[in-house]
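Why run this: before we spend reagent on co-expression, it is cheaper to look at a predicted model of the complex and decide which construct boundaries make sense. The entries below are exactly what would go into the expression plan.
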Amino acid sequence: MKAKVYVNLKPGVLDPQGKAIQHSVELLGFTCIADIRQGKYFEIKLDSSAGEDEARESVARMAREVLSNPIIEDYRVEIEE
Amino acid sequence: MKFGVIVFPGSNCDHDAYHVISKHVGQPVDFIWHRDTDLSAYDAVIIPGGFSYGDYLRAGALARFSPVMNSVKKFAESGRFVLGICNGFQILCEAGLLPGALIRNRELHFICEHLFVRVEASDTPFTDELQRGAVLHLPIAHAEGNYVCDDLTVNELKRADRIVFRYCDKDGNITEAANPNGSLDNIAGICNRERNVLGMMPHPERACEDLLGSSDGRNVFRSLAARLAAVA
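The model came back. C-alpha cells follow.
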C-alpha cells in the first residue's frame, strides 16, 4: 500500500519561493499565470498488514505531527493500493 | 548556577554560546548532546543557532524529535530558563514552546548582516539588565526568519507584552525598511506566557566582543546570570 501526502502553505501565508518560481516561468513567455504556490509531496510505502482505514489514520497523524506545521501548512492524504 | 548548551547534529553556534557563558558571564557551562535527557544539573539551557538536521523538512522540524527536547519541555514547564537563538528559536516554535512559525525570508536570500533591534520588554530574565527602548546592534544569519502567526496570537503577544525584540533602524524607529525578512510587526524575539522561554533570531552570542563589531549581546546573558544569582 502507498500513501501520498501533499503539504501546502495555507492560503494567505506568504510563499516567496512560489513567487520567485512564478517570475521565472513568466520569463519563458507564459502570461496566463495567476499564482504559483510551492508545496511538498511525500510517498510513504506501508506494509500490507494495515487496513486502509488504519493506514489513513496513521498517515494523517504523521502528516499532522511531522510532515506539516499546522500553523502555516495544510495537508492532504491519499491512499493507493 | 549552571548553564547548558544543547548540541544537535548541525548546530554551529554552540561554541559561541559556550564561550560567552564561560568567558563573559564567568559561569560553569556544559555542552549537552541532543541524545542526553538529564537536565537536572542545569538552571538555564541555550538552544544555539545552526542548521540542526540540515534544516531538512523545515528549519527546526526534526530537532524537535531529538530525545533532549522532551526534557527541555519539562525543564521549561518547571520554570527554568530556556533561550533559543536563531535555529534555536525555530526549534522552540516547532516544538510548541513558543507560538507562531518562522518561514522563508521575504526576499528569499540568506541574510547575514549586523542590524538593529529594539528592546520591547525588559521584564524578562533575559532582558532585566536592559532598558525598554534600548537599541542593540546584533548580527542575523538566517534564511527562515520571517515570523508569522495568526491575528489572535499576535494580539495576545502584544497584550501580554511578550514581544521582546523588534527590528528597528539605528535610532530605534520601527520601520518597514528596517525589517530584514518580512517578519510580522518587525518581530525579532518573543517569550512565552510565563516569560522563562525566549526565542530570538538575532545572535547576541556573536555580539559579545568589540573586536567582532559589537558587544551589545552581553547583557542578554548577564541578565540571565543576574536573575539566576537572585533566585539562588
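Helices of chain B lie at 14-25, 67-77, 87-94, 151-159, 218-231. The interface with chain A takes residues 57-58, 61, 65, 93-94, 99-101, 103-108, 146, 148-150, 182 of chain B (CB under 8 Å). Bring this page to Monday's planning discussion.
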